[in-house]
Structure formats: C-alpha cells, structure tokens
Amino acid sequence: AALPPLLQALVQLLIRIDNLREQLELYPEVPCRIEDMAAITFTSKYNLIRTFKQEVGLTPHQFQIQNRVRKAQKLLNSSASIAEVALATGFLTKATLSGVLKKSLD
C-alpha cells in the first residue's frame, strides 16, 4: 500500500534534509545562505530550520560552523598556516577563525 500524500511529502523532505546535511559535512567551507538551503530542500526557511534541528540536533548554520571548525582543527594539525586554514574552511579572516575556535573550546 502506498503512503498517504502527506507522509510521502514528509519522507521526501527528510531525504532532502539528509542530503543537505551530507553536503554541509563534506563541503562546510562553501557559503550557503539559509534561503538557498530552503530552496534546495523545497521548503520554507523556517520549516527547514525547525526540521533540520529536530533531525540533526543543530540548526543548519550551527551544523555548518561545527563542521568548519572540525575541518579547521584537522588542517591545523597539518603544516598549514592559520591564514591558509581560514581560507580553506570558509572563514573570512584569521581573527574570525580564531574567535570561532576559541568559542568552540569554551
């Protein structure tokens, strides 16, 4: 038996949100506004934020920042400079990266 249309729509939304989550994990440095994320998932930005947080535990922005920090930490363990790491992880300046890293340690 086929799923009711409302349930089908919810399942499709959850699949699109999971795809978005995967992209944010793989490419956290790529700038992506909440409006763009909503368009990709075919939902409103408010519904996206609410549903993403229910499924992932963080808002899309928080999740993207968390993954940028993780990537930065990995790159800092290599021989990359702070400036190189900032650029590679989507932070505009070394100061921004330093502030986010410091905040993540608190």
The chain-level mean pLDDT equals 91
Q: Catalogue the unreliable spans.
A: none
Let me know the number of strands: 0
Mass-distribution shape: elongated
Taken as a percent bin, the fraction of beta residues is under 5%
Question: Strand pairing plus helix content: what structural class?
Answer: mainly alpha
**Element order, helices and strands?**
HHHHHH
Q: How far is it from the N-terminal to the C-terminal residue, by CA?
A: 51 Å
Largest sheet: none
Tally the helices: 6
Gyration radius over CA: 16 Å
Name the helicity range.
Answer: over 70%
Describe this entry's structure for a reader.
The protein is 74% helix and 0% strand. The chain has 106 residues and is an all-alpha fold. Helix 4 crosses helix 6 and helix 5 packs across helix 6. The longest helix is centred in the N-terminal third of the chain and has 22 residues. 19% of the residues are buried. The model has no long low-confidence stretch (mean pLDDT 91).
SSE layout and pairing:
Elements: H1 5-26, H2 34-41, H3 45-56, H4 60-76, H5 82-88, H6 94-105
Helix pairs in contact: 1-4, 2-3, 4-6, 5-6
Features:
mainly alpha; 106 residues; 6 helices
Question: Short description, anyone?
Answer:
This protein has helices at residues 5-26, 34-41, 45-56, 60-76, 82-88, 94-105. The chain is mostly helical and 106 residues long. Helix 4 crosses helix 6 and helix 5 (82-88) packs across helix 6.
